[in-house]
Amino acid sequence: KDLATRKGIGVLVFSLEMGSMSLGHRWLANLSGVPLGRIRSGQLLTDDRTLLEAAREELDRLPLLTVESECKTAEAVRAIAERQAFTRRPALIVVDYLQLLSAPGEKDRVQEISHVSRVLKATSRALGIPMLALSQLSRACGDSERPHLAHLRDSGALEQDADIVVMLWSE
């Protein structure tokens, strides 16, 4: 469960891959303990409804702002983040996920991702708000291999621009 949001710290989430409904279902499953599959299918047990209602009430109180896939560029993310920084002052910005942003005018994908990475880093610094930018690993990173910085997809700029890189991996 997300401790930061439970303490009243606002979070601005750019959900570029999934819509608010899917994201909401995941959050409800996490907060309630009801399996996501039952929420999606609507085949809820008697106790599930009570758990989901309590989770929905808790979710409604959390200072979360979700921006769906309307953002196509890093500049669009920056513009929305700047507006929200002055109105709601989030303590964290999350971009899920960085490779879905484009940079029109760049010649190739590596340059696009480098541009996106630079804009997100500059946005975070200018606003004084930490940013968590989720990224895919390249397919070259096999299931049995521990990921390395070189496995970040499409660009070496990601590891250069990031203050911290965290890779989730399980054997």
Q: How many E-type strands?
A: 4
Tell me about the largest β-sheet: 4 strands, parallel
Instruction: Estimate the strand proportion.
Output: 5-15%
What is the share of helical residues?
40-55%
Query: Uncertain regions: pLDDT < 50 for 5+ in a row?
Result: none
Radius of gyration: 18 Å
Distance between the termini: 23 Å
Give the class from helix and strand content and strand pairing: alpha/beta
Strand order of the largest sheet: 2-1-3-4
List the secondary-structure elements in sequence, H or E: HEHHHEHEHEH
Q: Helical stretch count?
A: 7
Overall pLDDT level: 83
Brief descriptors of the model:
alpha/beta; 4-stranded parallel β-sheet; 4 strands; 171 residues; 7 helices
Q: Would you give an account of this structure?
A:
It contains seven helices and four strands, in the order αβαααβαβαβα. It has helices spanning 3-6, 20-32, 36-41, 46-61, 74-87, 109-127, 157-161, and strands spanning 11-15, 64-67, 92-96, 131-133. The protein has a four-stranded parallel β-sheet with strand order 2-1-3-4, covered by helices on one side. The longest helix is centred in the last third of the chain and has 19 residues, at 109-127. The protein starts with a helix and ends in a 10-residue tail after the last helix. 23% of the residues are buried.
